[in-house]
Write a structure and sequence with these properties.
Layout (H helix, E strand, L loop, with lengths): L2 H16 L3 H12 L9 H14 L3 E5 L5 H7 L7 E6 L2 H13 L6 E5 L2 H11 L4 E6 L6 H10 L1 E10 L15 H14 L4 E10 L2 E10 L2
Parallel strand pairs: 1-2, 1-4, 2-3, 4-5
Antiparallel strand pairs: 5-7, 6-7
Helix pairs in contact: 2-5, 3-4, 6-7, 7-8
Length: 222
Amino acid sequence: MTQSTWDAVDAYFSEQLVGHDPALEAAVAAADAAGLPEIAVAPNQGKLLHLLALTQGARRILEVGTLGGYSAIWLARALPADGTLITLEIDPKHAEVAQGNIARAGLEKVAEVRLGRAADSLAALVEQGVEPFDLVFIDADKPSNPEYFRRALQLTRPGSLIIVDNVVRGGAVADADSTNPAVVGTRALHDLIAAEPRVTATSVQTVGSKGYDGFTLARVQS
């Protein structure tokens, strides 16, 4: 199979099951106009995040890595009126675009963009003793994935769901000799998860408009 086939299949499913959405399409357009990298989740992947959050009955969601706010919109739409989404972004330009997109989607009352290094923002949330999050979506710099996951465990409860994106790295995750920092970080993440008795987890490979990659799902057990 080729990338063109993957693109066509994603387009088909997105047309059939996701449909057109002015707020989401405007978010993509704003991100493109601002020159943000085209690395946001695909529409069908965004819908998956939305459905997972709904299935989880999430009232509180934490996102590590905002970019232009596309996935934040999908996640925030799954929240009840009194729900909360906190999304962490290090780049001021990305945060500004995301805040505009979130406001245009009418979600500014439930979704908050926090600017700064994710590691610092996560440590601050732990120190504040915030109410646990029901779902955590990690989609930021891959070398820091182990630290983000450790913090996510401190910020969740039994029954919470932690999702880590981009874990297959085009298949490179299977290369134990790789020196690529993203691969090294991703392998360290899975070493951590495999040794962590508080979670049960699996990873899934995906192909589509975003290429060959995948995600990890971990449920907090205790």
